[in-house]
Amino acid sequence: MHKIVLGLLVVFALMACNIPQKSQDNKVDVEASQSTDKMEWWRNDRFGMFIHFGLYSQCEGYWKDESIGGIGEWIFKHAKIPVDEYKELANTFTCENMDVDAWAKLAKESGMKYVVITTKHHDGFALFHSKVNDFNVVDATPYSKDIIAEFVEACRKYDLKIGFYYSQYQDWSYQGAGGNNWDKPYAWSKEGFKNYMDEKALPQVRELLTNYGKIDMIWFDTPGKMKKEESEAFLNLAKDVQPKIIVSGRVGNDVGDYVQMEDNDLPKRRPDFDWEAPVTMNHTWAYKRDDHHWKSAGYMLWQLTYSAAMGGNYLLNIGPKGDGSVPQESVNRLKVIGDWMKVNSEVIYEADPSPFVNAFNWGGITHKGNKLYLNITDWPKRQLSIFGLQNKVNKAYFLASGDAVETSREGEYLVLALPDEAPDRNATVVVLEIEGEPIVNQALVQKLDGQIILESELAENTTGRMTHFGSVKKWMKPKGKLAWDFEVTQAGKFKVEVITTGFKRMAWPEKPALWDGGHKVKIVVDEQEIKGEVDKDRTEKAPHDLYNDFKVAEMGTVTIKEAGRHHLELVAETIENSNKAGLAVRMVRLVPSK
Ligand code: JFZ
Known about the structure:
There is one protein chain. By secondary structure, the protein is an alpha+beta fold. It contains 12 helices and 29 strands. It has an 8-stranded parallel β-sheet with strand order 7-6-5-4-1-10-9-8. A 5-stranded antiparallel β-sheet has the order 18-29-23-27-26, with no helix packed on it. A 5-stranded antiparallel β-sheet has the order 19-22-28-24-25, with no helix packed on it. α6 (about 100-110) runs parallel beside α8 and α9 (about 190-210) runs parallel beside α10 (about 230-240). The longest helix is centred in the middle third of the chain and has 21 residues, at about 190-210. Residues about 1-35 have low confidence and may be disordered. Bound molecules: 4-nitrophenyl 6-deoxy-alpha-L-galactopyranoside. 4-nitrophenyl 6-deoxy-alpha-L-galactopyranoside binds near residues 22, 71, 221, 222 and 285.
């Protein structure tokens, strides 16, 4: 038993050196979390603001005039800065343009209901006054006031729930804590880590949860090689001091209250547990002067509505500049989101997730009473069709204008007639008033336009590999397969395409995704079999994917003679992995062909 734990620790140790990928270690005990009502506000509110602010914000991605790759708050590690030198950043921390009231007001006006702020990130610097460690804003900086105290007060003024981000494992400026592998005396050690927990981390968490009144969430992160007892020590302390506090899954070892998705990655099938997606507005959490990869407000409204449809929370980040001011690019986008929320927030707050388990490519559905909200972010040309809604539709109209929408039935599809132009180019809501509770057919079904889209995330997957941004991650050996059962409504001849995407390393978003081609695969559709090579015959824009395009490989054609249930399998025969990506299947697509 202990040997197994040790084995896992080695895996976690390796992960701790990098930003961990979606790991099993933030799964939660669903039964335990669902059985309490302390999650109620969180499930109802759905939308929060993340704030990454600290000494690193002053660097703006530069160290000694050199541009440093990767996410901004990791500059200490990515530039391998000696601890003594990094600590000097405290001397210039004046926050001359910081207005924490404005941060809270911005969250409120954007329609956010809770905030999570970095009280101490991996660098070890505390934005609050700590009696146990003087590397904090009051004792070490010219600003010299407790930013957390000021911010908490502002949040209360605007009636925002309060969450504290605290890096419990990684602390790069404390000897023996996790994560520092470039400045020798600060390296992790067993004894040192225990000392760090007893002398700094646990006492600071106690300070945070004792000195600022009621705190609603604590957002632990990157548990690294922490043992279960250690995760539990943080959990128990938090619950002891604040009995109703919600504890993030990244406290480690399956003991948190909910699951944090991999940053910026949204699921294609609705999970049956509480989850939250932390998301950046550009590529970095902390401010970087050269990061201009700003997502559009429309994209963020897709993420927000889609997360709600999938039963998850959306935690959208701002990274104030070193002087404390919020980048104008963020303010502008939040204004658009806030204006949209003023009209449409009923589709988010207190709304139930979609009755459908599978995602749609046009947006997502949320649900309240007899209303289904179709939150349409990718405007379909003229009509939108939904397969499998069994209820009678009494009324259909645009939420914003009240104008009626014409609906009809084509077999099991409900078809909505829509204007050519989206009434709201970011996200248009159509309300369906239905009879009774929604009853739906969950089958993976052919689209009304004839295409059959089989996403890897929806496959029965025996490759032993998880999906990452929708694609099979690091499928390097021809083992296992992807299989789908699906429903055909229009039989015929189909072109078979295998679509792959690259593997994106999230700690270095600016680096191109890794990709391999030239794999030999076999595709079996019922009794038919085709063999072919998965390469890049052409590329296509990948909807909602900021890091990739679709590499489309044409495999041949198959004929499906009858409507009804069918089965498709993709089996790898050889896999190329010279670029360390392997066979990253995103989907198999069947396109009707004459
Ligand atoms: C962590 C931090 O390292 C990062 O600086 C930022 O604060 C972010 C919100 O959280 O990064 C992670 C942690 C976990 C995953 C991905 C990024 N994960 O599990 O996929």
